[in-house]
Each structure stands twice: as structure tokens, then as C-alpha cells.
Amino acid sequence: MAGRLGAMPAMARQNNRARSVAARQVMLLAIAAVSACNTGDVFALQPAVDVGSQTAAVPETPQYSAPQYSAPQYSAPQYTGMQRLVPSNPYMTAAYPRMDEPMSPAEQMPQSEVDCRNELRRLGVVYTDVQPIHEGQCGIDYPVRVSAIGSVGMKPSATLTCNMAATFATWTRNELVPAARWRYFSGVKTIHQGSSYSCRNIAGEGVLSEHGKGNALDVMSIELNNGDDIDVRKPGLFAFRTRGFLNNVRADGCQYFTTVLGPGYNYDHRNHFHFDIKNRRSGYRACR
């Protein structure tokens, strides 16, 4: 028993030597295998063959250089005189409102003119506001251009004061249209006028005509829906219906206008009715 125990250490030493020899042989074989594939030093971390700075599988990333921009040079304008007080920069006008276009008449007209235009709309008058007219002693501060009164056209359009337009529209609706229906069984299609605003004096006198103030309108003929065109010139002896119609509208006009003149008054009014709203202190109305 004691002999067996003494032999065991010797056997262990022999086994250790065998394993050590085997390990050395494996290492030598590994070194030989690596040396067969590499001509360089196996312990140096460098390739044995120079392959350059890039390979076909990994292309070199191109170098990009950002373009160089130069900031624009700006020199502030030099102002002199009043420009130092009022800026010329269009973006700095908060305290200096631009007045490129004049204000419309509707924004400046007095309340009486506003009320008058409300009346025109109530009467169905088709009109447009136009710029003030000033020609020497003639003119209209707040003129309107009338193109129709309801379904009754005005040819050509008449430039008048708002008061004259409202007065004429009232006469047309209350007197002219009903008279045409009574006499001709037809409505009125068009009123053909010969003169509205016109800067001139009364013929043969040095007095400004009401036409020069926009307060007058001359009617040349009246066209009906049935095709009849009634000329206001003095009708023939046997034109009873036409004479009755013209006499009615002329006489009824004196209830609305302060002046009504027509054929038979004088030569200048031989071919038209003249209506105006001249303001006379005595309240006199000239109906002839």
C-alpha cells in the first residue's frame, strides 16, 4: 500500500511533462501556419503587402468644402432737410399715413347729402357719385349721375345735384308714369334728356343758368314700352291724346319744380321741357 502511494507523484510529474510538450508543439504548428500566409511580422499590426490608402470595397469619402458667401454691403441713405424729420423708408409709415388717393365724396359729404342719397335709393334711382365739379362760377359740390329711375332709363345719363335728382325721380314716379298708363296704356321705357349740368348763362341774359348749378334738366322726348316715342314739341292740331298727355305732365310738374318751361314759351324752349328747382326768395314758381 505504501509503495503505491509513493509511485503516484512520479506519474503526475510525467503527465505534466507530456502536456507541456504537446502545448509547445501546438504553438509551433500555429506559428508555422500563420507564417505561410503572411510575409511580415505576425506580431506587428501592419499588412505585409502595401495596398495603398483605399481599397475597391471601401471608396474614400470625397472632401466637401462649403461655398463662401460674402454679406452684401449696405450703406444707409443720407437724408437732408425735411427728410431727416419724415422717413422715406416705405416700411416706416406707421406715423405717416399715405394719401395716394383722395377720399371719396361719401366720406366727406354732409349729413343732408347722405339723407338725400337714402331717398334716391328709396325711389329706386340708379346713380353713381362723381367727383366734385368746379368751373369758375359753375359747379356741383356733391354731384350724382343718374342712369335710371326704377325701370325707366335715362339717356344719356344726367349729372345733377342730389336734390334735383330726387325731385325729378318723384315727379317721374308720381306723374309721368301714371299719365302714360292712363293715356297710352303703356309704361315709360326711356326719358331722353338734352341737357343736365352745363356751365352756361341763361340765353340772352348775363345770369347763370340753373344748368350751371346742376339744378335743371331738359326733356326732349319720352319713349314708351309699346314703342311710341313722344316728342315734346308742340303737337299737331289733331293730336289730341299727345296734347293731353304733354299738358298734364307739364302742369303737374309745377307741383314739384319751381320752373317749368316748354314749347310755346319762347323759341329757345320750342323742342323741350325745362325743369329746375331754382330757389326764389318769394317762393314764386315760373310755369309757362
Model description:
31% of the residues lie in helices and 19% in strands. The longest helix has 36 residues. Helix 4 links the parallel strand 5 and strand 6. Helix 3 runs parallel beside helix 4 and helix 4 runs antiparallel to helix 5. It has a domain of 179 residues. The chain is an alpha+beta fold and 288 residues long. The strands form two sheets. Strands 1, 4, 5, 6, 7, 8, 9, 10 and 11 form a nine-stranded mixed β-sheet that branches. The N and C termini lie far apart (174 Å).
Brief characterization of the structure:
The protein is an alpha+beta fold and 288 residues long. The chain contains five helices and eleven strands.
What structural class is derived from the secondary structure elements? Answer: alpha+beta
Task: Tell me about the largest β-sheet.
Answer: 9 strands, mixed
Fraction of residues in helix: 25-40%
Number of strands: 11
Order of helices and strands: HHHEEEEEHEEEHEEE
**End-to-end distance, in Å?**
174 Å
Principal-axis shape equals elongated
Question: Beta-strand level of the residues, as a percent range?
Answer: 15-25%
Q: Count of DSSP helices?
A: 5
Poorly predicted spans = 1-7, 32-59, 82-103
- Cα gyration radius (Å): 55 Å
